[in-house]
User: What shape does this take?
Amino acid sequence: MSNKTMRTHIIVPKELVDSVDALVGPRGRSKFFTEAVEEKLARTRLIEAAKKAVGYLKDTDIPGWETSKSAAEWVRASRKTDEDGLTRLLEET
Assistant: This one.
């Protein structure tokens, strides 16, 4: 993200501005709105990328991903393996 900024005019419901100001104060409003927009853009881009990827692996044989249930089990086992490895690393330090 560029450090270059510009002033713009947007219309925002008063209740929303009041809520933001109560949280971060009027001097933190621009930063809060900037971060919120950045987060929304990142989510939107991720959703669009996911939509483009739908079906990408449909003709690829991936052991453990034959059904939604088996894929969920594969993910759980993978996470468990990761958690166990992290636990071991933390115990060694």
User: Anything to note?
Assistant: Residues 57-93 form one domain. The mean pLDDT is 91. The chain has two domains: 1-54, 57-93.
